[in-house]
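Cross-posted from the bioinformatics board.
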Amino acid sequence: MTTKQKIKTWLPLCLCLVLLAAAVWFLGRLTQPKYMSGVLEGAMTAEYYEEKTPHDVIFIGDCEVYENFSPVTMWREAGITSYIRGTAQQLIWQSYYLLEDAFRYESPKIVVYNVQAMKYSEPQSEAYNRMALDGMRLSVSKLGAVRASMTEDEDAISYLIPLLRYHSRWQELTQEDWTYLFRRDKVTVAGYLMRADVKPMKRLPSVPILKDPDIGEACWEYLGKIQALCEKHGARLILIKSSSIWPHWYDEWEEQISAYAAEHGLDYINFLPLQDEIGIDFTTDTYDAGLHLNLYGAEKASAYFARLLADAYGLEDHRGDSAIAADWEEKCAQYDALLDAQLRELEEYGYLKSWTLGNDRP
Amino acid sequence: MLFTSYRFIAFLALLFLVYYLIPKRFQWLLLLAADVLFYACAGWKGLVFLCVTVLVSWLAGMLMGRSFKEQKSFLKSPEGKALPREERKVWKKKRESYRKFVLTLALLADLGILAALKYTNFFISNVNSLFSAELAGVDWVLPMGISFYTFQTVSYLIDVYWEKVEAENNLLRVALFTSFFPLLVQGPISRFGDLKETLYAEHSFDFKGFSFGMQRILWGYFKKLVVADRLLPAVKALCGAPDQYNGAFALIGALFYAAELYADFTGGIDITIGVAQVLGIEVKENFIRPYFSRNIAEYWRRWHISMGTWFKDYVFFPMSAAPRLMKLSKKIRTRWDGFGRKMPVYLSTLVTWFLTGLWHGAAWNFVVWGLLNAVIILIAEEFKPLSTRFREKFPRLTGSFGYRVFEILRTFLIMCSLRMLDCYRNVPVSFKAFGSVFTAGKWREAFSGALLELGLSVWDYRIAGLGVLLMFLVSVLQERHGSVRELLWKKPALPYVVFPVLALLVLCFGAYGVGYDASQFIYNQF
Amino acid sequence: MDEILEILEELNLDADVSSCDTLVDDGILSSLDLVTIIAELSDRFDITIPAREIRNENFNSAAAMFEMVERLLDE
């Protein structure tokens, strides 16, 4: 074959392959869930990359961090800059890789990990994996997170080529998928997913008997890795158990975590015994009867935690720094606008229509 | 490694690349290494059995080959030529019986492994029900593709014995023939004589062969993922609840199964032949649009051809032409002429189909299925004179397009009915379901939403329907013009466009990934 | 040779049996026809046709069958 013939043969083929790749990319974008209404949690991971100023505090963990702490309150209270890299049912290896990912962009002084998720030592649910990981930028951390998170019938490649996962969604494409093809709205404020509705806690169900009280091996391994990662980047790791009272936090777990923290020189703060001190009232401060705090509960917990961080850990007050302050003013405005919008909806419908699937109306 | 796994696709991509980069004389060795890797993914235990089969057939083939060589050189030598005719005959007979001994031992070993691993439980369960005994079943591994590679090995050994092919002395070459991975999971059951020409040859990269192979692979994935796997939940639901889904549902189930099985099996074979084609290796076709057949005998010449010819060559002919059977037939003929004449054919047909049924699975439903096939073929044979006369009397009617369509539909429906035995995996249930088509009705129920409760949405049905339509159109084109890929090749841009278009169709409309069963190819189980 | 043609005529095939040389390859002879032929040949010529001889090239034409019969008679 002459060179000319070769070009004639291979050029169109390569062109076809490029077109195919482009189509696969585009269709993947189109069919990927946008999480802009109803289930907002899937949009949280990607939002982190839009942050403009660095943070002194990074939270990692599941809904017990992104519902129970509000960075805006912490800013207002003590000028602390913080961000919550939380996702729904975030498992500890995901926390580790999300943190590793965050260290590539900034150097926080404090890392806060909520230990509730340590009750899971095995991959749980494909849907939650997707919500936690699809938003991550492509990096070694993402690959690591995918490998650690996959349930049995998942394939790593479908995290790289979303069409392989979402191809059957074309049957359910809506306007939302076209609107948010190349952009997203913010669903959180610095990682806090606001809920301003109230559903008082009534009687809790009886506590199920704990079959296996031991925290899993994999969890300890990743907790060690998280600690090592923080040390490597000069950050201090604080373990917390935040204020949610359901699912039940067992004494057995409490003992194991306390012992680990003591042994490894980590601070561990359990918010549960501090509820009165913080002033949390579960008749007004929860939106789902005790599982998560609502805005009012989160603000109380955050104010308390901000004072603690400022006093005991000497975190700097950034309110004097104009560049950072400007960014946070914007966040505060966004926060207040969001609250207004939620309050309006609560008045109009009696429940939050735009921020929930509408199935947990009172 | 399933054909539909990402791992297999990565494996193929890597193999294709390396295959054309290494020196050509190592290509077939690379294939052998690929086989080992492919097989090891399914478990090392199976590999042990495969190795035994390879060793046995290599050794037996070599011994028979040597014996032939010795015989030839002796008969040509002055000493041999000097031998009187009678003594030569005796000498030859001795060699012949030695070869027969070797062949018998080897076949016993190969088929023994197959029989023991595949049929022990069937045997035990039958003994149990016959003598109301309670023997426990065994839990032995069934090595991947054992039915296929054993049959290939048997054909090789018998062909050597019949001097149809020369024995292969290189152990590794025998190993490659036995374990060539595209053929391993579902055939076609290829003959050594057909494969050896291209299997061990040196191949330089050929763009046309590469394109054709890739197109065929994609077309196979289309059939498998877009049509077969999409219909699968409905077929499972319909066949899984025969009491609820009888009447019209049983017919719909049979039709769905016809589409699913065809798309699944031919799709798998398309991938197989396509992979071989990319590697420059020619594999014989296994299907020639069987659903266009006008009678059952023709159907079996066009469906799963490699299996049909295997049974024909190694069971049917040797048996029906066996001297003993011929003698018996002669004896019977002295009393009942007609029956005596037909007896060998009838007996061999029944035995062949009994074995064919058993090969499909160690269960009675398959045996009954096989025997029913035989019965229908024999009945058709009996009515041949009648139908010939009918044709002669009404040439215009029987030559018309409409009559042809009628014949095709008739054959198709008969095969669908027989296949119910395969769907329901239970003889009485199958007959009941077949009967219910005529008695239970349920037509209105079937078409007022009940079909949407089988796990398929309206869109699933639409996609599957369009997929079947596309398959039908391609088949019609092939019937009329031969290879569709050759047609495309003559057009300027089309061969290129086909590639991404097919790939996108498979990626978007295939039933794969989370939420779908990573279903095996149906024929992998056999 | 005539006897072979006679056997073939009796089968009522869709081809000119004296000249056609793709009787098996083109599917003109069915398997059942083939067995009938084998039985007739063994009967009339008093030979046994071993399984190894049952291959397409031996039955594709009347001439090929004749050749095979000659060979078997010779052995």
